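Deliverable D4.2, example record:
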Amino acid sequence: MMQVILAILSTVLVVVTLWAAWHAAKTSRTPQAAVGWVVFLLAAPYLAVVVYAFLGPHRYASRARARRKSRALFKDHRSDWPEAAHNDPLAVNLRPFESVAGLPVVCGNSARILIDGKETFEALFEVIDAAESYLLVQFYIYRDDDLGREVAARLMAAARRGVKVWLAYDVFRPVSLRPRLLREMADAGIRIAHARSGGPIVRRFQFNFRNHRKALIADGRVGFLGGHNVGDEYMGRSPTFGPWRDTFLRVEGPMVTQLQLIFAEDWHWVTGEALRDTLEWTSASEAGDLDGLIVATGPVDAEDTGSTMIYATLAAAHERIWISTPYLVPDLPSLTALKHAASQGKEVRILIPDSIDHYLPWLAAFAYFDELMEAGVEIWRYREGFLHQKAFLVDDRIAAIGTHNLDQRSLQLNFETTAYLFDRGPCIELERVLQADFARSVKLDKTLAEQPLWLRIAAPVARLMAPVL
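Output generated by the structure prediction step:
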């Protein structure tokens, strides 16, 4: 009897393995990922089938259709924008960015760069406390710690004075937000949703399918986005990480409406609740003279919008490209574009942390350093705490701050949002910020061959897992 059961289980495993290999070959976005999954599944099926269930390149066709439905619901809000000025004779070709975003570059914006946790959350608290109509809040991680409870207290106070509050958070780390705090916020009138659709079992199998966006919109007039999550470590209170280097952006003007549109589409996709008639879509009047655009990318887009965004950013450079990212695990198009830019004589600098928060991406990055440095790319390692900032500076013409990392997870697997500003003023401001960061960093000059033996062995192995890091 046992032999019969084992034979049946063996047959089922073979069928499931072959189906998973076929599915991986069909749905993987790159040939490298397809080959990697197929080899893994056929070589170690007992382990690989389980791993594939959680980390495989699932396209979630039904969820893609639902996502398109959410976007269609707000179609009329994707038109009738104020036309960008384009006064600069050396203006950037905006079409690639507009194509990725599905939105036009808009004029009449103002922006302020916020450095680190204290400045960021002081600005967020000021806006939360002054909100009159509604607050839209979205974070990848929301911890039930001192900062998390302070944010919750201010949101609950806003809700109790009649402000409508919507809060979305990702559940990749379910212990981040405990049921008690969730209940307290819900009892205060805050509408709360997981940032991924489906029930708990379905979300468990979306382990590799995360909403990494962080944003806050108040009354449709003021918006924020950037790298910070809600947790004490983002205030520099973690004994493990020490000082936490991060950046947020405060925007006013029509870009706020674009940011609000992305939140509303996310909310409808997850909950089915349409906010189109609840929110204010005309209050974000001109607040300055900056041309800007909110670029949102995600895994259910018809094209590889994350990679296209990075490629367009690098291709726009004439003289220099400065990048700050906590993780450097680029996909092939981004890697090629970085090397090509450096080979043309452009100054390409990449600023990454020297300290570690996730070992595999940290290790995998070492497998890319030699290839990049040989092409002329400068790698700088930030030494004073952990660097979590996500920023791009292109000449004096593009300043971009948001949630995109320069890794394959951000480019192909996560939902991300970045604000692009096409103006000299923000570029000068971001240049000062990055110059201060470079002053706290050291330029990498060692090749992988000069690193310790364990690192020489581990880095190439970690790179093999790049598509799911």
